Request: fold
Amino acid sequence: MLARDTVREFLNRSNFLPTIAVLLGILVVVLVVSYRIRTRFWENNSDNAADPEEMLVRYEEMRRQGKLTDSEFRSIKNQIMPSRSHTADSGRDD
Reply:
């Protein structure tokens, strides 16, 4: 009985439980915020994954407007569409 009262008194005088409660609360908040950030990142990442042909059309329009040179466009085109052969594109000026 003496040990039980001593432990109870220790916990009543101690800042141990409130400290643990605050730390657990902070941990929960951090986990919730990180989950929401991760979810938004993946949503934005999937929204930005455009079709390669659509991206190519946009870059071709930039080339027509003079915002990209022909060599820059060819470089971007080869990065977007690496499966196309470089020899087929070299003889053709878009």
About this structure: Residues 52-90 form one domain.
